[in-house]
Amino acid sequence: MRKYVHYSDATGINDENQSILIDHNNDHFHQSIIEQCPFQLFVYEIQSLCNTIDEFSVARDWLNCYSTKNVILALLVEVGELADCFQWEDNVSSSEKDIVHRNKIAQELADVTIYLLRLTMVMDLTSSVEQSLQHFLHTINQVVL
User: Fold this and answer.
1) What are phi and psi of 66, to 5 degrees?
2) DSSP readout, 41-106?
3) What is the rounded (10 degree) CA torsion for 134, 137, 143, 145?
4) Which of 26, 31, 105, 133 has the smallest CB count inside 10 Å?
């Protein structure tokens, strides 16, 4: 049973409509696009995720719940759940973790990402974040080249 299924009667989320991780390394077309213009693809995927998050929220009439404070508090809860995955562990590499534990970590990382993106939308900072990322990637390209 996955995380949100328990509340499926209220949220509409079930085992079939939860997000899954896609291995883009096996998709040669996707890989060639990444090699040609990684930042543009990255921005496109973030915009696409933001649209999906908005559609999901609109369908459930949740937009009125998204104040800055509420989103930050929800983000903190998700970061806490991510931290819980590592509490009381020794320095075990991620490749040594069992698949169930890795899937739990992946789900919590996805939740954190969703709330980070929601926060950028609530605070109307999406374009500012894109500019900061573009500056960061430009800096990296100068160091690498």
Assistant:
1) -95, 70
2) HHHHHHHHHHHHHHHHHHHTT-GGG--HHHHHHHHHHHHHHHHHTTTT--S--GGGS-HHHHHHHH
3) -100
4) 26
Q: What is the residue whose two structure tokens read 């075990």?
A: 92
What are the two backbone dihedrals, phi and then psi, of residue 15, each rounded to the nearest 5 degrees? -60, -30
Residue 63 has pLDDT above 70, yes or no: yes
All structural domains of the chain with their residue ranges: 39-144
Instruction: Indicate the helix (H) or strand (E) that contains 75.
Output: helix 68-84
DSSP 8-state code for residue 76: H
**Sequence-separated (6 or more) residues with CB below 8 Å from residue 66:** 57, 118, 121, 122
Region of 12 on the Ramachandran plot (φ > 0 left; ψ -120 to 50 alpha; else beta) = left
- At 68 the pLDDT is 93
Distance CA 57, CA 113 (A): 15
State residue 133's pLDDT score.
Answer: 78
> What's the confidence (pLDDT) of residue 144?
59
**What is the distance in angstroms between the CA of the first residue and the CA of the last residue of the chain?**
47
Domain 39-144 has CATH 1.10.287.1080: yes
Mean pLDDT of 81-91: 84
Token pair for residue 24?
């883009």
